[in-house]
Automatic annotation (TrEMBL):
Residues 1-17 form the signal peptide. The keyword Signal applies. It comes from Chrysochromulina tobinii. Keywords: Signal. This is Methyltransferase domain-containing protein. It comes from the Eukaryota. CDD domains: AdoMet_MTases. InterPro entries: SAM-dependent_MTases_sf.
Length: 381
């Protein structure tokens, strides 16, 4: 009899697991009130261990079921256990300390019991393994909050990895409303990334330090052009002259011509250059806008070609990025990779990148510093 009950229970749980897997794969989103279909959970970035603990103790509520990824069964887990309804810690299985060559540290405890933690479950698994994560987290305790220590699981601090993992968790668990991720690299990106309304209001996040280019994520061509003009308008108001603009993915040159006119109006030999991957399109652009300083053929991913497209020895202050593949909502990681590439290529002069990317725009809205006002402020954003 008890054997039958066990078989039925196992069958039910594996059915629930596969239903949840299908639901996650199909993008079914039983969203709670803090997340939206486009931006997913709020992603709070913490640049340090202390910021992570302070953020967790402020943002986690007694109703939350917390999934702690890269759990050390230490201070952070204890703080979460004090605040939340339940905590499920997961961590990678590691062999010997230092053997893998990764910088991730090892837990001083192997189980919650040994650490003296109550109300905490712990599983060894690979957090990139969605199936294992879904199977380990019970359907009755779907996580509402995730806390990630990126360094523990990746062994390094990489913004693309950090964003990819946070997004993957958001897709896997529709119940997830908030994620705190300890990653200095993602925190830095969060400070650079903004949207046109935020740029106009300069609210929501502090401007990046002057040595980091600002990244303005936009949706649609009107938003893209308005953001570029906003940036140039702000510089003109400061009396800046000689502003150099490069548009990558200029098509027939309408935006490049607009920027060129604005740069000329600013004085001091300002200009715009447009490049596109298509020869025939560039011929049309040059025919339509002979006043523009220069049009050239270049692939966005070919940094040498981008450098050559600029007049000898010159490098842009403002870069506009509008190329196929990065503008959709699925192109967020490509968009970010390309933005990082151009930022490195034109380091020293580049002050702002305006990029047309639905995905990066959603990420800009999802990412907040952990010290920011809190989850409830996201409503209606
Ligand atoms: C939406 S259109 C650009 C519109 C233009 N920015 C404007 O504001 O009028 C996208 C352009 O990106 C170009 N493109 C696509 N992939 C590219 C790549 N890898 N490098 C450079 N240009 C690319 C296409 O040829 C196309 O002309």
């Amino acid at each position: 009899m008890s054997f039958c009950v066990l078989i039925i229970a196992v069958a039910c749980s594996s059915l629930q697991g596969s239903q949840r897997l299908e639901r996650a794969a199909s993008g079914d989103t039983r969203r709670s009130r803090f997340r939206t279909a486009t931006i997913g959970p709020a992603i709070f970035t913490a640049s340090s261990h202390l910021a992570l603990i302070a953020g967790a103790s402020r943002l986690v509520s007694p109703h939350d079921h917390v999934l702690e990824i890269g759990s050390q069964l230490g201070e952070v887990t204890r703080c979460l256990a004090d605040k939340a309804s339940s905590v499920h810690g997961v961590d990678m299985e590691r062999e010997l300390q230092g053997k893998s060559g990764r910088t991730a540290s090892f837990r001083s405890h192997s189980s919650p019991e040994e650490a003296g933690l109550t109300g905490v479950r712990f599983t060894l698994l690979d957090p990139w393994d969605t199936r294992a994560l879904l199977q380990a987290t019970g359907a009755d305790e779907e996580p509402t909050f995730a806390v990630i220590d990126l360094n523990q699981i990746v062994g390094n601090d990489l913004p693309l990895e950090a964003l990819a993992l946070a997004r993957q968790l958001g897709k896997t668990f529709p119940s997830l409303t908030n994620v705190i991720i300890k990653s200095g690299a993602l925190d830095k990106l969060q400070r650079q990334l903004t949207t046109l309304p935020e740029l106009r209001a300069e609210k929501g996040r502090a401007p990046p330090p002057s040595w980091l280019p600002r990244i303005v994520a936009t949706r649609g061509v009107a938003d893209y052009r308005a953001a570029a003009l906003e940036m140039m308008g702000a510089w003109a108001a400061e009396g800046r002259q000689g502003v150099r603009v490069l548009e990558v993915g200029c098509h027939t040159g309408t935006s490049t011509a607009m920027m060129h006119a604005r740069a000329l109006a600013g004085g001091g030999d300002g200009y715009a250059v447009g490049v596109d991957v298509s020869h025939s399109i560039i011929e049309r652009a040059a025919g339509l806008h002979p006043e523009v300083r220069r049009f050239g053929v270049a692939d966005a991913w070919d940094v040498c070609a981008l450098q050559k497209a600029m007049p000898e020895g010159e490098s842009p202050h403002l870069l506009l990025l509008d190329v196929g593949g990065v503008s959709s909502s699925h192109g967020v990681l490509d968009a970010l990779a390309l933005v990082r590439l151009v930022c490195s290529t034109f380091k020293g002069t580049l002050e702002a990148v305006v990029v047309k990317s639905h995905g990066l725009h959603a990420a800009a809205r999802a990412l907040k510093p952990v010290g920011w006002g809190g989850a409830t402020e996201r409503e209606g954003s």
